[in-house]
Amino acid sequence: EISPVHEWSEPRLKEGQRYVGLAATDGGVYSCTSNGALRYTKLNSDGEEPTSSLATLPMRLCEWRLSSDARTFAYGGDEVELSLWDTEKAFSTKITPPEPAPADSKKRKRSDQLLPGELWRAKNLPNDHLSLRQPVHNTALTYLQPSTSVAHQHLLVGTANGSVRRYDTRAARRPVADWKGVGKTGGISTVEKGLHEHEVFVADRGSTLAALDLRNGRTIYSYKGLAGAVTSVAPTGSLMASAAQDRFVRLHSTFAPPAESGQQQEHKGEVLDKLYVKVTPTVIVWDGVSPNALGSFEEAEGEDEVWDQMQAVESDSEDEGKSSRRKEKKPRST
Q1: Is the residue at 319 inside a domain?
Q2: What is the sign, positive or negative, of the torsion defined by CA atoms of 147, 149, 154, 160?
Q3: Which of 33, 257, 260, 324 suits a disulfide with 37, CB 3.0-4.6 Å?
Q4: Is residue 304 exposed (0-12), middle (13-18) or buried (19+ Cβ within 10 Å)?
Q5: In what ranges is there compositional bias, type Basic residues (predicted)?
Q6: Domain range spanning residue 246?
């Protein structure tokens, strides 16, 4: 039976707002809401009540992610540019978040100044062919690889217009790659780095889930048979799990991108199995246990059960000998 160990609430979460990020570390839990309420909850031992540290980020957030080493986090949202922060400084400095970018150019120029604890902030794309400002609406993001420098990160972002953009914080404030039209319906809902090199998984708000090649942004393969928008994926190597709004949790096969960029993909991922759940799943995670290791453990455990159920050889052979002697003495019927 599963029972809660610690429980707390976020009083700054207002009606109509939601959680956009949640991450657990060895020391505690980070949470972030769409109105910028960032919290670090330290889980104390010996049954003591958890303690919290608070910080305030800009409003209208759509996605918040913590790096693998917890030294940095990134966020983006509706008229909120992709931003990279130092985790420790975010909680140690009082932050007054700016309002969403207004139309006035002078105010936008002042808002380009980094906030205390902010390491880097993206810059909007150039105006379109009609000289109109392009709207900013980042809906999904992920870290692409670990980094030894907190200020140098590779990030991938999905937008409401279906584009996927790659950022290198050391190279430029604008994306180093902008792949348009990846999301077919309703914009990008989730992006997740795969465990193979140059592999990333992208889902839109329709029924598209695809593997992309990070070298050129091309779709390697798409999964068929999905009836609802995928809200979360969890790659595990040769397998991947997904949660979708059609109330199915699916298990997929995955294959590494081709060795050379632009080559044809020989093997394509498929849906291997699916499980219907009573409520709509929103998030799915991998516990870090390798499927191969789990199979070996279950196989070994099954072998132990078989041996435990077997009887001793001596007693079986003795009984068989007595039974055979009785059969030999029985006269043949005529």
Answers
A1: no
A2: positive
A3: 33
A4: exposed
A5: 324-334
A6: 19-289
Looking at the domain assignment, is residue 216 inside a domain? yes
CATH number at residue 122: 2.130.10.10
Backbone angles phi, psi at 60, to 5 degrees: 65, 40
The whole-number pLDDT of residue 293 equals 52
Domain count, the chain: 1
In a domain, 295, yes or no: no
